[in-house]
């Protein structure tokens, strides 16, 4: 059997348990079937440290060049990791670095299998959350005041013109915060959302609190509206999908009552909170994929979970682990399918579909990793080790 040929994608290797799984997936599920054509970047923490993190920047630039990338989970160093790896510096999160280069939005979607029922009984299809990962409270400036006094918001334009508003006349101590966002970032977010909705043929919902935040949130609402009307409305109508704006509280109520099957775009904080709510309600972090979509059409796929450190330490001690590789497999299939789509490579797209189906078929036949076995509703499942599970998918794929 000849292997499937493909155009180039960017491959970003990572850390710990997911690095082990990465190799297993390539060896067992990809290389035997596809002539893998990747530009390899080792984002493992050791190599990031050796290159003074230049490799993260190079990987981000490569994603721009080839338009499609797939990334393994990586360690974001903290003080403990600096010691553990004897790092020169507490390097920034590679995801943050790549996101800054691609100016993208992260879309997170659950992978559904019969047997793991969402906590919300109405949900039948995935709900994809798009989080605007820029500004707002995450870049807020804040302090406490401890005596009575006047708090003001002051803007001094380049022209010298000033805008000033009283925030509050404090009669006692309290707290203050200022936050900002940029039109350019909101526009990029909107383009990424509209493009991804068209790409996946799903409705797009967007929610803010513009009734209360009459300038700040209103700006988000108006920018989305303007871009939709001028640039996407026709394409949406053609694709048979809709764009829908509503207040965040109304959105929450509708989401719970919905069947799923749409994208929910959220401001930074809302997205932070709601994505944890939605992913937990769908079942397992190990069944959640993530794709970074840039406004000009670059796609970087990964699993939503981390490097599964606890399992890795057990693996190092020679214990057998039962770590779920599904989200990492789907990161690969997402990237291969997108490459296929961009190149008109049907064979590659079909392979991605087959690999996903084989993976889910194994689970639905009652064989799975421990995390899923604990959530399983139905006949007693068979718990497999990481390796056994990947081998079972290989056998299914070869059928
Ligand atoms: P994590 O790696 O997602 O793991 C947290 C826990 O969730 C695990 O201990 C495990 O629970 C369960 N879990 C996650 N993925 C699983 C899988 N595929 N199969 C089975 N169980 C799974 O998060 P973390 O422990 O907070 O972070 C570990 C490292 O990952 C950190 O260094 C962090 O910086 C990094 N991280 C990277 C990314 C990224 O690259 N995108 C994202 C998040 C975190 P049990 O131990 O109970 O089985
Ligand atoms: Mg969070």
Strand content: 15-25%
- End-to-end Cα distance: 14 Å
Mean pLDDT: 95
Widest beta sheet: strand line-up: 2-1-3-14-13-4-5-12-10-11
Q: Main β-sheet: number of strands, strand sense, barrel status?
A: 10 strands, mixed
- Along the chain, the helix and strand elements come as EHEHHEHHEEEEEEHEHEHEHEEHHHEHEH
Helix-and-strand structural type: alpha/beta
Proportion in helices = 40-55%
**Shape summary:** globular
* Tally of individual helices: 14
Can you list the ligands bound to this structure?
NADP nicotinamide-adenine-dinucleotide phosphate, magnesium ion
Q: Radius of gyration in whole Å, from Cα?
A: 23 Å
Brief characterization of the structure:
This protein has 399 residues and is α/β, with parallel strands linked by helices. Helix content is 45%, strand content 21%. The chain has 14 helices and 16 strands.
Describe it for me?
It is a single chain. With 399 residues, the protein is of the alpha/beta class. Helix content is 45%, strand content 21%. The strands form four sheets. A ten-stranded mixed β-sheet has the order 2-1-3-14-13-4-5-12-10-11, sandwiched between helices. α1 (16-30) packs parallel to α14 (386-398) and α12 (346-364) packs across α14. The radius of gyration is 23 Å and the shape is globular. The mean pLDDT is 95. Bound molecules: NADP nicotinamide-adenine-dinucleotide phosphate (NAP) and magnesium ion. NADP nicotinamide-adenine-dinucleotide phosphate is lined by residues 73-76, 95, 285-286, 302, 305-310, 323-324, 371.
